Amino acid sequence: MAEGLLVIFILASHLFVSGVLSGSILTIENKCDQTIWPVIFSWQSNLSTSGFALRAGEARALQAPSSWYDLILARTLCSTDTTGNFSCATGDCQSGNVKCLWSYGWSAVTYVYFRIGDGGVNSYTISVEYGYNLPLTVIPSHSSEQCRVKHSSGSETCFAAGCMVDLNKTCPNDLDLFTGGKQIGCISSCLKYGTREICCSHDFKSKQKCKPTMYTRNFERDCPLAYSYLFNDNNSTLTCPDSTDFVVTFCPSSVPNITSEEHNKNSMAPLAGPKHNSLRKFKPILGSAALAVFIIIIVVIVVMVKAKNARKK
User: Fold this and answer.
1) Distance in angstroms (rounded) separating the CA atoms of residues 31 and 110
2) What residues have CB less than 8 Å from 299, skipping those under 6 apart?
3) What's the confidence (pLDDT) of residue 156?
4) 78-87, 215-224, 301-310 — most confident range
5) Is 119 left (phi over 0), alpha (psi -120 to 50) or beta?
6) How far is CA 286 from CA 24, 223, 282, 290, in A?
7) Tens-digit pLDDT profile for residues 279-296
8) Mean of the pLDDT values across residues 96-105?
């Protein structure tokens, strides 16, 4: 019995320790002049939340699972009506609630797609494939080594990127989204018109036949590192070391040059502001605590086994 407990406790402790020490920290911060409601739509493993409110100037840090695919976007101009139904002017996930269901109907939003622990690396892609509602940046950082991964070509593949330009100002008139006379976003031509050629579907679903349109070229010109249409081959997927942490900022003021030595030194600095809840500074503490718990459990089980053997003698 004691030997069986020993095996169970060792496995449980290993899972506990590895769960604390592995995975990346995703920090979502709001530098907009309005409240936003981030959405986290997950594949494989889910986080503790799928949607929440983030007031102007606030940030929230989340611990990602060690293997995780997810999409992060922000809803805007949200409200609850007299019947209790929650909805948003952009990015609405049609759940009727602040938290989203595990499905999402595409709308005109800027989003970032993360692949955490995918083949030993982390990667992310910023996309305006379905439209645009807010500017955003992603800043990667790594605590144990420089945040630089060399591609086989020799180019760096881990650096800050974003879509900083207000695409609402350059949005074609027929793709503008308005509410109450105010422009709130720019819808993609695929969502607007839905033709096979524009959406690269059916007969056009191949790299040879799927071509950029005047609409996608507008997005590509202003946000060259953002994915803008199916089969878009602009190296928009950036790859970083496994366990790299990321800061996703909505309405950023600038994009830092992460390829410089200076940014590699500064990228680990915690975000300013009393409302920022960063998990990064607690990660070593949690890891040490988990290791201590693991050792105590092993000692207790060993004592139990020895006591049982002594009684048998």
Assistant:
1) 15
2) none
3) 57
4) 78-87
5) left
6) 14, 39, 6, 6
7) 544 444 444 444 454 566
8) 79
* b/e burial code for range 256-288 (CB count within 10 A of at least 16 → b): bebeeeebbeebeeebeeeeeebebeebeeeee
Domains along the sequence of the chain with CATH: 24-279 (2.60.110.10)
Residue 153 Cα distances to 69, 106, 145, 174, 265, angstroms:
26, 35, 21, 41, 25
- Whole-number Å distance between alpha carbons of 14 and 19: 8
As to burial, measured by CB atoms within 10 angstroms (0-12 exposed, 13-18 middle, 19+ buried), residue 304 is middle
With vertex at residue 70, the alpha carbon angle to CA 68 and CA 72, rounded to the nearest 5 degrees, is 145
- Which 3-state string (H, E, C) describes the chain? CHHHHHHHHHHHHHHHHHHHHCCCEEEEEECCCCCEEEEEEEECCCCCCCECCECCCCEEEEECCCCEEEEEEEEEEEEECCCCCEEEEECCCCCCCCCCCCCCCCCCCCEEEEEEEECCEEEEEEECCCEECCCEEEEEECCCCCCCCECCCCCECCCCEEECCCCCCCCCHHHEEEECCEEEEEECHHHHHCCHHHHCCHHHCCCCCCCCCHHHHHHHHHCCCCECCCCCCCCCEEEEECCCEEEEEECCCCCCCCCCHHHHHHCCCCCCCCCEECCHHHHHHHHHHHHHHHHHHHHHHHHHHHHHHHHHC
More confident residue, 175 or 279: 175
107 near 90, Cβ under 8 Å? yes
Strand partners, 166: none
In residues, how long is the chain? Answer: 313
Which residues in 156-191 are b (16+ Cβ under 10 Å) and which e? ebbbbbbbbeebbeebeeebebeeeeeebbbbbbbb
